[in-house]
Write a structure and sequence with these properties.
Rossmann fold, 5-stranded parallel sheet, alpha/beta, 4 domains, Methyltransferase, Cobalt-precorrin-4 Transmethylase, Domain 2, 6-stranded mixed sheet, Cobalt-precorrin-4 Transmethylase, domain 1, 19 helices
Length: about 525
């Protein structure tokens, strides 16, 4: 995420940059489903917006891109539910822009494809409001990519028609229009057609399209909830009722549907459709969420701990000013790296402050955090635990060592070093704070409702945090899901609380844990 507004036109660190000025409205296409499909320009607008008016079909995690303090307004419209009128939304865009706000209207898919973006743009132009239209990947593109159903193909389809199944106000449904379409195009892609699917398909058959023509319905395209029903034009409406598919969904009619079995990939990902509880602190949860989505699963964020300053922040500040006096500086987590460098920044220091000191990391995550700040550690423990790092450091020789870690942590690392005659200073770079007890009921409901498939435990602190929140019901509720542990220390903590561990990572990283889960479910 960018740390500051985009200042001018051009390329900045490989990203497109253009000025984002107050008093302007951006009609932004969020793309379909997968939040990583938003465009660079759309992301830039979100990161600098003062107010965001977002639709129901834009992915909720996109709102995490907004800067702290941005006002977020839900203006989503869903059939059968009370929602803001289009007139009210347009009036808000004009009013906010005239107040000098940077305003983003975040819309699912593309703002100009079966959306109200064109009407909003017309109203903004008539009001003399500065605006920009930021295209987004339209939902049919997601269908083709994520359901394995191409909309065209050299051998079976050279034309495609996009059509909405929703009536325009004052214009009634006309079977004759659909009958004319029946054989006018190779592929028919119907958006917002679920309510009238039986009437639409019957009209297409009456118009001359063979009832045996392949047809598919894709619900929640490009999301872990995605479901694909493959049938025929004559039977698809009944099949939808039997299987319980509903909006948001897209219907595809044509020979291209037969290609799905050959090129489908998304719903074959190892964790496709699983819902994984991520109880990490929010700072790490976002990165973990990305890794989960890459495997086709849905992260459910529920921080049970918060990373805060240690009781004596001055001790960390003094330690970083004396980094060069040690022959080794050891980090046991990415949190420690982040907090140490924040302290260094306050003191006007950078990587040069380490001087001749060598640097050690307990695992790949800590190593990556250091490398992002220009430090390539001299040692990364092959066993991602304190004892492993101690062995690596002692093999290379050590006299005076600084260990930067959490306030409460295992003493295996400093104890092993001291046993070998090494002088060790242990300084708390941060501490973890448990979530409030009030969150316990909400967490218990997530388990009891069956909405979760897996809980990812990436540290002993998250394990203890969940057990504390769930109280006497911890073993019972955790027994309803797959319990996945990042390594032996975390597994030991869970078993100490009477919790069964179903999956343990052989490589003690988030990626290693997700890989182990993939093997478990396969």
């Amino acid at each position: 995420m960018c740390s500051r507004p985009f200042p001018a036109c051009g390329l900045e660190k490989g990203r497109y940059v253009r000025a984002v000025t107050p008093g302007t409205v951006w009609l932004v296409g969020a793309g379909p489903g997968d939040p990583t499909l938003i465009t660079v320009r759309g992301r830039a607008a979100l990161e600098t917006a003062d107010v965001v008016l977002y639709d129901a079909l834009s992915h909720p995690s996109l709102l995490e891109l907004c800067r702290p303090g941005a006002e977020l307004r839900d203006v989503g419209k869903r059939g059968g539910r009370k929602s803001p009128s289009q007139q009210w939304i347009t009036e808000q865009l004009i009013e906010l822009s005239r107040a000098g706000k940077r305003v983003v209207r975040l819309k699912g898919g593309d703002p100009l494809l079966f959306a109200r973006g064109a009407e909003e743009a017309e109203a903004l132009a008539a009001a003399g409001v500065s605006f920009e239209i930021v295209p987004g990947l339209p939902s049919p593109s997601a269908l083709a990519a994520y359901a394995g159903i191409p909309l065209t193909h050299r051998e079976v389809s050279s034309s495609v028609t996009f059509i909405t199944g929703t009536d325009r106000e004052g214009v009634s449904f006309s079977p004759e229009r659909w009958m004319k379409l029946a054989n006018a195009t190779d592929t028919i892609c119907i958006l917002m057609g679920m309510r009238r699917l039986a009437e639409i398909t019957a009209a297409l058959v009456r118009g001359g399209r063979a009832p045996e023509t392949p047809a598919a319905v894709v619900e929640w395209a490009a999301r872990p909830e995605q479901r694909v029903l493959v049938s025929t034009l004559g039977d698809v409406a009944d099949a939808v009722l039997r299987e319980g598919l509903s909006n948001p969904a897209i219907v595809v009619v044509g020979e291209v549907v037969r290609l799905r079995e050959r090129i489908r990939w998304y719903d074959r990902l190892p964790l496709f459709g699983k819902r994984l509880l991520v109880p990490r602190a929010m700072e790490q949860a976002r990165e973990t969420s990305s890794a989960i989505r890459e495997r086709g699963a849905e992260p459910v964020l529920f921080p049970v701990i918060e990373i805060v300053d240690p009781p004596d922040p001055g001790a960390l500040d003094r330690a970083v000013r004396g980094l060069s006096s040690y022959d080794w500086v050891l980090f046991t987590s990415a949190n420690g790296v982040e907090r140490a460098f924040a302290s260094m920044g306050r003191a006007g220091l950078d990587a040069r402050a380490f001087g001749p000191a060598r640097v050690g990391a307990i695992g790949p995550g800590t190593k990556t955090a250091l490398e992002k700040r220009g430090i390539h550690p001299d040692v990364v423990a092959r066993e991602f635990v304190g004892e492993g790092l101690a062995r690596e450091v002692l093999a290379l020789g050590a006299k005076r060592v600084l260990v930067l870690r959490a306030l409460v942590a295992r003493d295996a690392l400093p104890d092993a070093l001291r046993s070998a005659g090494v002088s060790v200073d242990v300084v708390a770079a941060y501490r973890t704070v448990a979530a409030s007890p009030e969150k316990g009921a909400a967490l218990a409901e997530k388990f009891a409702s069956g909405e979760l498939d897996v809980v990812l435990f990436t540290s002993s602190s998250t394990a203890s945090g969940i057990v504390d929140l769930l109280g006497d019901r911890a073993a019972e509720l955790l027994g309803k899901v797959v319990v996945a542990s990042i390594g032996p220390v975390t597994s030991e903590t869970l078993r100490g609380h009477g919790i069964r561990v179903d999956v343990s990572a052989s490589e003690y990283t988030v990626s290693g844990l997700l890989d182990a889960l993939g093997r478990h479910f396969s």
